[in-house]
Design brief:
The chain is mainly alpha-helical. 56% of the residues lie in helices and 0% in strands. The N and C termini lie far apart (39 Å).
């Protein structure tokens, strides 16, 4: 259930973008906890990024989450936390790109939250999220 909430939070943040950060108390925004990360380098960088974020060292957090992304770009939580850290720095456009990427990964099932039945509950075409604009998953505005 907790993992499903993370996926929905990513979708919500992507759709609402910077407005969420403008309205939120800066102390209320916390990084997503570490999922099961197989790649040791990505796992280490992810954990260090979370620690830096919690200590309000957003430059360091961005650096660590970027390193974790480079080591394993398929982890939605890395993109969510990188987006949150970038938003804390006022880089909303860049933050939105990472939040969009997290949603794409979740919808594709690369890092989709799972339930006890083994389904993410976010199946495209079955009431799931629509593809991100420009992702090649559907028509986009001219």
């Amino acid at each position: 259930m907790k993992k499903s909430i993370v996926g929905l939070a990513a979708l919500f943040l992507t759709l609402n973008g910077p407005a969420v950060f403008a309205a939120a108390n800066p102390q209320d925004v916390q990084p997503v906890p570490s999922p099961k990360i197989q790649n040791k380098e990505a796992k280490s960088d992810f954990k260090e990024g979370v620690k830096a974020f919690k200590n309000q060292k957003y430059d360091e957090a961005v650096s660590k989450f970027e390193a974790a992304e480079k080591a394993d770009p398929s982890i939605p939580a890395t993109h969510i936390n990188l987006g949150l850290a970038l938003a804390k720095q006022g880089k909303e456009a860049e933050a939105k790109k990472h939040l969009d990427q997290a949603v794409i990964l979740i919808v594709k099932g690369t890092g989709a939250p799972s339930t006890s039945e083994g389904s993410s509950g976010m199946t495209p075409g079955a009431g799931g999220a629509a593809p991100a604009p420009g992702s090649g998953g559907g028509p986009s505005a001219p």
